[in-house]
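Anyone else keep sequences and structure tokens together like this?

Example one:
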Amino acid sequence: MNPTALVYDFDGTLAPGNIQEHRLIPEYLGTTKDEFWAEVRRRNRAHDADQILIYMQLILERAHEAGKGITREVLKAQAEGAPLFAGVIEWFERIDAYAKTLGLELEHYIVSSANEEMIQGTGIAGRFKKIFASKYIYDGRGHAVWPAAVVNYTTKTQYLFRINKGVDTYWDDEAVNRWSPMEERPIPFERMIYIGDGDTDIPSMKMVRFQGGHSIAVFDPDQWSSGAAQEKAYKLIAEDRAHFVVPADYTERSQLDVTVKGILGRIARASAAPELMAHF
């Protein structure tokens, strides 16, 4: 079986919107998503700072102002019941079974700027071999005090190399930077499919394409009628960022389902021994 990776962004890719917006921001922090993100943008520019660091700091500040703490348990609980796109729950078992018929062993990964702890609170967390996302360090009482890892639009690419080389930690920079022959890496880029939804995924899409892998851009079907969604899809295709742009619909026989299966078939043919090529 040839290991093959499906790598997903989270917000806007597997789930609509940002995961913090469903319960954490309005219910636990007691503010609106518009006010929260407006303040993130204001500080981002005022301090010439990384936007992900700013939103992680603001979560801690707003919780402190409300007399509450941020713990792993709180973040996971605030993600319970978060909406997912159609078909996501059933997707993993079905696509894994299909891949096996082609001689491929699928591994699923997340590379996202969202909170790792919140993603861990969703009903699909157990489907992923590794979740690389922004997360906190906790003190002896279990309260978040500082960012432990920050995943932004450019640092996402390093996690693709970690997957490529079989490095499943954030800290082991030596292993991820160590040279190894392409053919000896656990998951060659040629057997990697990246699925994302927009601007923050462009460097990853471009890098995966450059390395011989495959990139798919998805969009929220409910937002397609807006000019902005159509313009984004146009640019992703015209600027050669993504191989395919399809709705974020993971149900059987959807455009995404058919597209991924087609790519898996291509990977299987390329991976097959010459004597087996006749079977594909």
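And example two:
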Amino acid sequence: MKKIFALILAVALSATVLAGCQSGGDAASGENADNSESKVIKVGASPAPHAEILEVASDILKEQGYELDVVEFSDYVQPNLALSEGELDANYFQHQTYLDNFNEEYGTELVSIGAIHYEPLGIYAGRTTSLDSLPDNATIAVPNDTTNEARALLLLQDQGLIEVDDSAGLNATVKDITSNPKNIQITEIEAAQLSRILPDVDLAVINGNYAIDGGLKMSDALAVEESGSVATTAYPNVIAVRKGDENRPELQALVEALKSDTVKQYINETYEGSVVPID
């Protein structure tokens, strides 16, 4: 009987110890999961160049204990909505002027915590191979969002093709064209589609990131925004976050990584002028 009692007691003690170990393991696992989760930075981005640049920055962030989770978007609206709704910690795809207009239109409260680069707009050949040979009644496609459409029209103005009302500034649309001697047909197209419709138009004015997506290089452009112009200084691509999150250490670390010499060198060597880092 004593042997049986001792055996039962030993089994009970073993079960208690085992349960304690399992409980401790779960607690430790939960704590590690919480710590791991707190170090993940979830960033929305356009596939190129933003997501590509973020991949370079991710190696720098790993050294600081942060894991970068990049979520790619193919349009200009969803990454801001996802950020506003708390699905992202930050996003990197847009310039400051677009961000300001988006906040006004959608009632969001998103702010920039750092300007990383700018992407010069370029005029690319479709059916017409040069600006000099552009025929009367030619069709030129431009981005259909307000800020980038204004950039496109100002670039066409710089080439002497049209004139735009000065008072419209960076909010100019086709309605603000005051002179159009060649009777050019300006077609407003969603920015992501511009490189795809090149064969169907004479020319297209394309954002740098979508030109890259379409396999185009800056050297392919017939004309580009000049460095230091109003357009390039008004349209830096930024890291956007929700208002109130500006000082989160992991987001500050993200900006520092993107402004590092390593990332700047990658941008210069990879994009050859299609993307220009901001000092």
